[in-house]
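the three lines:
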Amino acid sequence: MKKLFSVVLATTLMFAAVGCGSSTTSEAPAADAGASEEVATEEAMTIGLVLPTLTTEFFVTIKETAEAYAAETGLNIVILDSQDDAVKQSSNVEDLITKKVDGILLIPTDSDAVATAVEDLNAAGIPVITLDRSANGGEVLSHIASDNVAGGVMAGEYIVELLGGAGKVVELEGVPGASATRERGEGFNIAMDAAGIEVVARQTANFSKAEGLTVMENILQAQPEIDAVFAHNDEMALGAMEAIDAAGRSGEIKIVGFDASADAVAAVAEGTMAATVAQKPDLMTTTGIETLLQAIAGETVPESVPVELALVAE
Amino acid sequence: MRKSVSYYVEKYRPIIILVVFMIAISIMRPEFLQPSNLSNVLRQTSVNAIIAAGMSFAILTGGIDISVGSTLAFSGAVSAYMVLNNYNIIVVILVTLTIGVIAGAMNGLFITKFKLQPFIVTLATMTIFRGMTTVFTQGRPISFKSEGTGIMYRFIGKESLFGIPIPIIIMVVVYILGYYLLNHTSFGRYIYAIGCNEDAAHLSGINTKKVKFMAYVINGCLAALAAIIVTARLSSAQPTAGDGYELDAIAAVVLGGTSLAGGRGKITGTIIGAMIIGMLSNALNLMDVSSYYQTIIKGLVILVAVLLDREK
Amino acid sequence: MSECVLQMKKVTKEFPGVKALSDVDFNIYKGECMALIGENGAGKSTLMKVLSGVYPKYEGEIVFRGKKVAFDTPRQANEAGIAIIHQELNMISYMKIYENIFLGREIKTKFGKLDKKAMVQKAKELMDEMEIDLDPNEEVCNLSLAKQQMVEIAKALSMNADIIVMDEPTDALPESDVKNLFRIINGLRGKDIGVVYISHKLGEVFEICDRITVLRDGQFIAENKVEELDEDALIKLMVGRTLEEQFPHVEYGESETVFEVKNLSNQYIHDVSFSAKKGEIIGVSGLVGAGRTELAKTIYGAYRAESGQIFLNGKEIKSNSPKEAISNGIYYISEDRKGDGLILDLDIKSNITISCIEKLTKNTIIQKKKELEVCGGYRDKLNIKTPSIHQKIKNLSGGNQQKVAIAKGLITDPQVLLIDEPTRGVDVGAKKEIYDLINLFKMQGKTIILISSEMPEILGMSDKVLVMHEGTIKGEVDRKDATGEVILELIFAKRG
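prediction for all of em together
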């Protein structure tokens, strides 16, 4: 009997823990100002937000923006984390279908693997909009992402300005084939071609700081003369900065990154990095939610919505 | 002598925990018991349950295999590549399973022939298989469309037979075979004997090396079978697929009442363990529990379950 | 008459089903060396474990320095001044000599820092006193076994021990080191320390000890001064009574040789040859570590034979694993039921059929009904007392466990049964049943190789006795010539 009791007790305790966890999210809107409550009762709408991971600042910002939006408007937003696992992602989508949410904002772990999950949503008649990363399959009402090409051009033109129209430039590329890599590279090279500046080295560092460091070390060995580096994200830019620093060439080489991560913004303020292109995850999130709400209301929404970028420079 | 209540609690502990658990969830979230949700949960569970079935064999012999996640990634990548290139579906399945068998055989060989620690061997092969996957896929996902072999392959992951999703059917078949092997064949008897006392098993005339080798082969083969389901379900093989799956599988085995020291435990417990883990994620999602808390709760559940098991 | 520093009076220690000690008296005298002598299983180590607090529950009393004492843990006994130096030395190999000596009792400065200097100094003094020349900063793993033993003695001295017990101290020592050890023991005597010397080597006992206490079958037999005994008299005391009805010897009659071992050698055994007939019991006698179990396991294929041949029914057989040995008609029943004999966590049924389960399968399925029938048959035949055949082995008594171990062998229908210490940890009643089983098997014309450390068992059961020592066969004695004295003399022939 004692053991039976302990089993029941343990299970109860477990659910007490679950209860505590859940209350923190569901109470958040209620705790907010009374004004929003009317909206909540009127609409009582629930949407899902599926994030690929919560270990990157960018996605954490999206999560926090969505939570703030929910608190302000009384909209219910269920936020799920796929932990960089496509299988977990499709389980999350299935669970949201069971919950009968009114619509879903989806940031895929990977554009291909998300296709079946989108198909499931289509079959369940739940509107879906992708953020940041697109889906290669299924029917997505709208894709909302930073205008990476424009960001690439922005970074490129700033480098041209810094170099006074001439010099030798290195490009550190992201994961080959990823849309961000493709688009940022495209924009950057448009600017380089227009100014007639030579890109002396172009290599991938897979969006990773560690690889940014080693790849840049190798390039520094091979290229005696470098005036600027453009990295497809800040992690790689910061890695490259370490390598340049270690080689004692920090004064002569300008570094431009992408994403405006906290570390990169600080580096720009210190003057160790020349600039970074800021994505606006908060703007992207609110645009996404609003577009989704329009779609749920039956309005037609544009197939793709570019979100503007901003240059953060010294 | 009449058997006391505690005897039955002891004997059926995993299933009691599962039932109490299900009742508790359904009180909080009635939609949990919807057939469509239960079917979802079972399908979500199937991958971990199939890997955990294989893991049961390794753990029952007193060993462990942490390379299953990587085995899954590599065999899944090869299968996606073959589907993309329109190989016959039977060939795709056989080759995928064979890769699992070879991976398991490698582990088994190092563990039995060279008498290395299972943890160390599979730690090494885990990184090797992961590296092979990255090389094979060049770090990119391999995706296929619903055309040619892809149509049939996707069928495995998405469709149902007699209203039951195919992954669930595969899972049930695996467990029936596993149950039969462990409880009704001499091989199963030997697995338990080796797990309890390998020296005594050897002196009793059991070819302990062969039996242990086979346990790892089964484990590898089931990891590959899980890879087929994952790949078919996503129509794509990810280079990072299966990362951390070994831990979920080990957790399922332990939750099912199997001792990590080997020799003690049932495969029926493992499927219940896998279901508890699967239902936990589902229930936490249904209850809007923040993802930050979900992993903490999952860890606590495993701790509590193992604590309960300790008294045995 | 010297002063008695410690007295154990009427000590009785019972284990479930076995009386390990009954009414044993044991005295240790100040400044004297007391030998504790007896066959394996006589109760020597149990008595020492009672003394040192390993077994805190016993009947009788211990009087130490005039006061009644009871130690609950070895640590308490240690602190009171009783040090035991075990056969397997208790040292941490990668620590230095002085660190080992003061392990757990480190000398510290006022500020709680380890006072290395003081410890090294003290260790050096201790070793100088013992006239041994070692650097306290040396790591223990670099020392020979004899030197390690001396460090262990120095450690006992550092604790101001009144009593030092040495369990088989010379077992692993070369002759020259034995002399050195004796010199140190003499030194201990000079310091009024009471020494207990446990040994099988009777020559040494006569050389170094002042008195001898003899135990047999858990009972106190005699305490004598060394001068009052000679070696023959001592052996008689140890072996004791003549064979009792306990061992009903049966005659199989004339038969032909069926099993032959020729020049078998490997790292454990050297050039072992013997032969056995149908219906014959070959007893294998010797001290612990004589290589008897290793011989059996080599025949059984568990250890690799480097050279030599084994013949069964005139044909040479090769067994590279127990599995092959079983199919050749050989089975080995282990001395160590818990270690490698039985699978304690599995049930009786699974243990009995583990070696023959493939014969009970049909289309790979185990025929559980048939399995139950077969096991039930063996349970009845061997009189295994259990409420259910599904009971786990670990819940059975020693005797019943042994019967399961025998059933597990018999079910494979072997022609040669190697049975190792079949009655160790088995109570008196069950012993008799096991002897009857062995005889039954013998009368079916099978060959039995019986390894035992119990002399009466060997003498009572065997048709022929092989005497082993240090991996070789020192002699072969026929039943009619076999006595305890003859066997012990063969064992000790070399050193005597």
